[in-house]
TrEMBL record:
Gene3D superfamilies: Neurotransmitter-gated ion-channel ligand-binding domain, Neurotransmitter-gated ion-channel transmembrane domain. Residues 251-367 form the Neurotransmitter-gated ion-channel transmembrane domain. It is found in: Cell membrane; Membrane. Pfam families: Neur_chan_LBD (PF02931), Neur_chan_memb (PF02932). Residues 41-220 form the Neurotransmitter-gated ion-channel ligand-binding domain. This is Glycine receptor subunit alpha-4-like. It comes from Pieris brassicae. Keywords: Cell membrane, Ion channel, Ion transport, Membrane, Signal, Transmembrane, Transmembrane helix, Transport. One of its GO terms (molecular function) is ligand-gated monoatomic anion channel activity. It comes from the Eukaryota. InterPro entries: GABAA/Glycine_rcpt, Neur_chan_lig-bd, Neur_chan_lig-bd_sf, Neur_channel, Neuro-gated_channel_TM_sf, Neuro_actylchol_rec, Neurotrans-gated_channel_TM, Neurotransmitter_ion_chnl_CS. Belongs to the ligand-gated ion channel (TC 1.A.9) family. Its main location: membrane.
Amino acid sequence: MWQLLMPLLALVAPGGGSFSPNRELLECASQILYMDQYAYQLPTNYSRNIPPGKNTTVYIGINVNRVSGVDENREEITLDVFLQVSWEEIRLNVPPGRPFIDLPWEFRQLIWTPDLYIWQLQTMRILSVLQEMASLRLYANRTVSVSIGATITIKCEMDFVLYPLDVQNCAIDFSSYKYTTEDVRFEWREVAPWFGIAGEQRHEFRLPKYVVTFVTDKSNHIRNFGEGEHSAARLQIKLSRELRGYLLESYLPSSLFVIISWGSFCVIPEIVPGRMVLLVTTLLSLVTMFDTVSTNSPDALELKCIEVWLISCTLFVFLALLEYFVVLFGIRYDKSWSRRRQDLRRAASAAQLAPPLHMNHSQDSPILEAIPQSGSANGVWARICTSAEKGVMFCGAQHGALDRYALIVFPLCFILFTVIYWTTYLSEAHRAMHSTRYG
């Protein structure tokens, strides 16, 4: 038995010199050799630094067990996965009559294993209960399979301009950092034919805010760095946000605030406190909502989709308040003009002059009186001021003409804005859903 151990121990001897076996390695070796009365040893000419052959194919299989969380501020995704890596090792044999043998996890240091590199990997921790969830198995068809259960954190570059209609696409590449495509190729294998993970594999996970979808890209991908081209197996992760919560928490209340502001057009303009309280309260509510959403939402380089909506709703309420200021100014001007006209009529009656049925605005207009009556340019200004005066008097008319028109124009403009808004941003979200972002 000791003669069988010597070639194995020689593999781990530093510099090819003499090796003094320690207790841990002896225990490891004894586990390898004692397998139902079968003695197993590595070939004497085996080298762990040389791949099994040229253009070795390494198969990657991944089963996502759970999406632990999505950190938008740090742009990270945490996953619990079962990862399976397999390749053909023609230099190793299984004892006759056995379909496979399970090797100790420490034995991976004695054989060639691919230098798997996950490009967007931040951290990786092998799951452990009583022992690490990792296995190393050699099959009769000379296939080596490494399976591990791990919690991994992936870096994913995110763009929140379309928030909350944003769709994040992350491409995760599994490749080699040392071997080029001439030595090692990486390909996907959903479920390995040698007793892979049982059960139907999940490709979609629903979180409180996101729907996370995983798709393995079967096309060939190349990473260029170092000394040449490196093969890569790509996993696409797509995060589409659940929109229902945002509709109920932000879009619906802000829309109702805008609709409530239209009720001010039905309030008699002379009731200043009631109308002002309605508009100012609605305006302040929208400003507070905008501040809350901006604080709790992820940062973006531009205005986010929901911020554009809230700013637009705030402007609609502000314009309703501005319309009321115009109405108040018109009422005040109309009253001033009426008193001046009455004074002129009383003066005309005192002078026993027949009062005209229709007064000429140029004779008693407060606006025109402020303009010097000389020169042709003043005539142009007089016509402009006459038109302005008619507009102000129209706004201040006691029958509320401007409010009636505003009650029609404001809803139509808001409906038009809503159609343009959702059409534009939904098309952008659809375009982003079918695009790919590389980490």
